[in-house]
Write a structure and sequence with these properties.
The protein contains 8 helices and no strands. By secondary structure, the protein is mainly α.
């Protein structure tokens, strides 16, 4: 097994055991986190497969292939949850965000395992930047999806449009991060700033109720 499978087993095993022991609401939250990690692992396999098929290097794959693969695979657990369990809006939005958190967590751990770092500040930039990007894409998916889901005539095209937006944002983030320097700083800062804005607006909305 490669380092990814080893890392996945170490992270997933405690979550799986906790899922068996906890109450239903907590069990569902941890299931979404575990689903996000599984999505990250599957995304790596699928991206590597397409990179091999099209004979492109890993850098190009991270710009052109990985964003589409990752955003589509991240969307599948929530789509399954909505269709099969007829989940409500609040539960589904929370599920999307937890899947994104699980995905980002596993991706960051794999990055650290692969490359390591001697600079704690750079590691924090990587951790918060990538985490914020995935959570922001999940938030955009949630907002877009449930703004359109009640309108049957635009459900399919609207969902496709939402995925295209998140894929494009994700691709731009990957390109800027790989460029390093000031591009890395901007790419990491933008998602974090947007997450803070979303949080402040959501708190104001709650306060108005």
């Amino acid at each position: 097994m490669t380092y990814m499978e080893n890392t996945f087993i170490c992270l997933a095993a405690p979550l799986f055991l906790a899922i068996l022991c906890l109450k239903r609401s907590w069990r569902r939250a941890l299931t979404f986190l575990l689903a996000g990690m599984i999505c990250c692992l599957l995304s790596a396999y699928v991206s590597s497969f397409f990179a091999a098929i099209f004979e492109i290097d890993l850098a190009t794959a991270s710009h052109a292939v990985a964003p589409a693969v990752e955003e589509c695979i991240k969307f599948l657990p929530i789509l399954f949850y909505i269709i099969i369990f007829e989940a409500g809006k609040e539960d589904s939005i929370n599920g999307i965000l937890l899947v994104s958190v699980g995905f980002a967590t596993f991706e960051n751990v794999c990055f650290l395992t692969s490359y390591g770092t001697s600079d704690l500040f750079s590691l924090m930039i990587r951790g918060f930047g990538t985490g914020a990007m995935h959570v922001l894409c999940g938030t955009a998916t949630a907002i877009g999806l449930f703004s359109l889901w009640d309108r049957a005539w635009i459900r399919i095209t609207g969902t496709f449009a939402v995925l295209c937006f998140t894929i494009t944002f994700h691709a731009i983030f990957n390109i800027m991060v790989s460029a390093g320097g000031i591009s890395l700083w901007i790419a990491s800062a933008v998602p974090m700033v947007l997450i803070i804005i979303v949080f402040v607006l959501s708190q104001k909305k709650i306060g108005l109720k």
